[in-house]
Structures are given as structure tokens and as C-alpha cells.
User: Fold these one by one.
Assistant:
Number 1:
Amino acid sequence: MAFSSSPSSFILFLVSSLLLHAAFGELICEELPNDKCAFSIASSGKRCLLEKYARENGEMEYQCRTSEVIVERMSEYIETDQCVSACGVDRSSVGISSDSLLEPQFTAKLCSSNCYHNCPNIIDLYFNLAAGEGNTSYSPCPFL
């Protein structure tokens, strides 16, 4: 049986591939849709990262990639939409920066009870970003 190269066959193949990985419990960043990439963790324990690059024709394109950042206590995890909203983060963010920790509105959401107590992945990410800046005693939520 020959493999058809029609768009619908490709989509069917892609969906089947994702379901097959899901059946085996394997989460691979490069196979995630862009709208689920940021704040996800692969089966390997490495964070997924949304990257932007220019195609040969100059158009910008986004792609989910596996970063080198390892999460100690989590793997195979896609952050919930509730946590994304509660913590004030944006799934369409390209890369991750600690700059947002300087914004009082952001830290207020990050340190809110809904985020801090229910979204350990996002809290871990931003606490580690703060520590990575060289200040291991810094906490974005000093009152907690």
C-alpha cells in the first residue's frame, strides 16, 4: 500500500503519530502544537520552548523545541489553561525571561493563591529563573 501525499493523509498521519505517542505516555516538545508548547515539560524532563525563526522566504514561523533546562520533579506535563490564566503568563511567549519578575502586576498574579498553590510548574520555572540571575535568596513572592 503506497502512502498518499495528500494534505488529508498527512494530517491523519500526524494525528495518528500524536495519539501513538500519547498511548505510550511519551511527550515530545517538537510534536506539540505551538499553543501548548510554552510551560510544557517533555517525557525527558526538559522544558519545552517556543522559538521563532525566519524561513528561507523571510516569513517568520514558530516551532516548539526541547530546551536544555531540566525540571527536577516533573515530566510529561502540559500546563493547564487555568494555570496560564491564574499566573498571568502567555503561551505565545517566545523564550522565557526573568524581566517580567520586575513588573508588579505580573508578580501579583504569580504570587496569588490561585497560581502559587495550584501551579507548581510555573512557580518552579520563575523561581529558577530568579535563582539563575545569581540571587539564590531572591523569591518573587517574599511574603509567602
Number 2:
Amino acid sequence: MSTSLRVLIVEDDAVDRMACRRAFAAADAGFDLLEADSGELGLELARSQRPDCILLDYHLPDLTGLEFLAHLNQDAAPGTPVMMLTGADSAAVAAEAMRLGARDYLVKDVDGYYLELLPGAIHRMLREQQLLDDKRQVEAQFRTLVEQMQAISYIAELGGSGALRYISPQIGLLGYSPAEWLADPALHGRLMDPAQRAATLAALQQSRRDGSPLHLDYRLHARDGRAVWLRDQAELVRDEQGQPLFMQGIMIDITQIKLGEQALLASQQALRSLSAHQEQIKENERKRIAQEIHDELGGLLTGIKAYIAVSIERAAAAAAPAEPLLAEAAGLAQDAIDTVRRVITDLRPSVLDQLGVWAALEWYAEQVERRSGLHCQCTVAAAAAELELDAGRSTMLFRIAQEALTNVVRHAGASNAALQVDYADGVLELRISDDGQGIEAERLLNRESWGILGMHERCRHFDGELKITGRPGQGTTLQLRLPLDDQHEY
């Protein structure tokens, strides 16, 4: 505010104008006075001179004070602060003047005490006007900033209603104006996806009732039918004393992000299905190769061994010494037969197809113990043993157990391992633990650890969950949880 204030006095009574001049002069506060003895002249001076404020009498020869205010705010000098001078019995006039834009008023008492208050009242009115202007400027800057953002911003009341005080023009993203949105509090809920509506409204209401932070993703249907995904985030705003005021939030359009996530999930599912299909092809091929080796190569080796045995028996019957090479050939043929059996078992153990996965797991634990010296205990709970899993899940469980025990033998340095199978509440659980050196965290996070990655993918194809935990020196535990529900056969 400048040190010299320009005050326009609009007063038709010359004596009253003189009294006002004396009051301002006595205040010695640097007032420059402009005077008008009619409403029209006052409006012209207000328009041309742009005073800091106007001191307005209600009774003018050509206009009433209320008419003056109407013209002033319409086309003369809108926004100029006005102090109204009224009679002692004019409370209604003062109220109407304030409604039309007067900033303050003084009652003209017969003893002229109002003149002593006049300079101070003018200063107070202008200070209030400056504060109001500053507030409006800050609000305008804030509104401009908010409305330039891509997000929809809003202010919501606290409490059960959660009514909105404000919503930014970006609500046009959904095809609605701020006025339409604020006029219909139920519109927000009606636009929600029916499958999400109850849970979403409950979360919104709880946040606005408790003042708790909100972070929520949900889908709305725009006026034109488009599905729009929004991320709704809100925080509680408090005053300087820490008292809660309202919730301030933003809604961000994340439709493209959600579409990308859906496309990624679809791609992952397609890759997972492809991987499972490839695994099935591989298992079928292993089974076919194992069968051919058994039927053809195994048969040939068995025939060769039989011929050699017959030759040795004939030589013995003729009391002739057997050819030493024949005995050696018989031993080599047996070694070849044993190798073929081992290859067939590695490709596809026949016990898995003939006796089922539980017998196959027990058999494989015995094989591991016999071949490696690792003490391997297999326990299948009675509830699990009663289950008859389909071929796909049976193969998955066996291959994961095979991979896990192979890793124990190769990397754990363990003396003991335990394989436990349980079933409860529709969930089958396979747990394999050892007392070895413990798997390192780096290996668990290594995306190039194809054995671990393969176990995870096999498990996920059947909606299972696989966890591998380990601590240095305290061994490693693999836990597979497989929900069965109605997916297994009894």
C-alpha cells in the first residue's frame, strides 16, 4: 500500500464533505482527496482517476448509494473498495450495500463521532482489501497450476458424506463438466465398474471418514462408454494447529498403463502356455525315445547276450574250453544293458507311468541315495497318497523334485535330505530340505539360473507357488504349494 492514499468522497452535502476533509487532515496519514457532489460525477472520477477507495453517501441527488454500487461494479471501476456512509436507522441499507460489493460501512451519527473513526476505518478496509487481493491472486495461481496438470484434482469434505468441494476441469476426460460432477454426488459411484463398485466405494468412504491416505486403482465408464482406468490418491490436509480440514486428491489416467499391463500378462500367459506345451512335447518325446531304446536297442543287446550265453554253454557241453573273449563279451553286453536301463530311467522312469507319482518319488529318493550316498528320506502323508493326480501335474511334481534333488547332490554338500508331501484344505505341499551349505541369495535372483527358473515356470503353469529359501551353513528348503480344488481326480 502506498504512503499517499487517494480517497474519492461521493457526498452531495458540502458541510459533510468539509467535515470529512478535516477528519482526514487531522489524521495526518497522507490522504489525497477527490470530491464529487453527485453519483454521475463520482462514477466519472472513479473511472478516470482510479482512486484507492471510495467513501460513499447513500443519499445522492441523482442516484442512491445502491445504484451507484451497481454502476461502479458494472462498468466504472469494478473491484474498487467502497465504504458506505448510512444513517443510524439504515441497517437494512448497509446489509444490501455489502451484498452489492461495499467492503465496509460507517453510521453517520448526529454528533459526528464517525468522523474520528473514518481514517482508521479506511486503513482497515484497505488492509483487508489487500489481503483479499493477495488471497485471490494466490488462489488464481494455484487454480491455474492445478488446471494445467493432466491429472484431475479435487477437494473432498471429511466425514460420512465425503462430498466434493471442488473438482478441476480435467474431469472432462470422462465427458462431464465440473458443475455436472459436483451437482450429482452419486455420479462417481454409478460410473464405476459393477464388479469393483462396492469395494471401491467402501475404500473411498473409509478414507474420507478417517482421514487416512488413499491409493486406489479403479475403472470408470466415461459418458461415451469408454473404460478409463484412474489412480486415485488423496491425503489429509490440516491447518496450522494440526486440525483436519479436508482431503485433497488427484485422479490420474492410467488407462494406457493398464492396457500395457494386460498385454504383458497376456503375453506372459501365452509364453507360459507355450513353455508348458514344449515341456509336454519334450516329455512325450522322452517317453517315445525311452520306449524305442527299450524295445529295439534293449532287445538287440539282450539277444546278443543270449547268443553269447548259448555259445558258452555249447562249448561247455562239448567239454571244450570256452573262448575267453566270449565271457568278456557277455560282461560287456550286460554293462550295455545296464547303461540302456539307466538311460531309459533318466529319460522317463517307467514307475511314473505305471505306479504313479508317489511311488515314483519314493523310487527316485532311493535312487539318489544309492547313487550319491546322500541319505534321502521320502514321506508321503496319507491324505496326499489317496490323491490320483493327472499326468500333467504328476510330471510337474516329479520333475521339480528331480531338479531339486539333483541340485542338492551337485551343489549343497549335504549329508541328509528330506522329501515331504502333505495335503490339506485343497492344497498339496511338496517340501524338500537339506542340511547343506545353503543356497546363496545371488543365485536365487540370477535370471540365468535355468534350473530354478524352469521349476518356477512349471509350477506357475498349474497356478502353483514355489519358494526357495536358504541361509549359509543352514541348508536350503524348497516349498511348492499347489492348489487342487476340483483339478485332481480321485
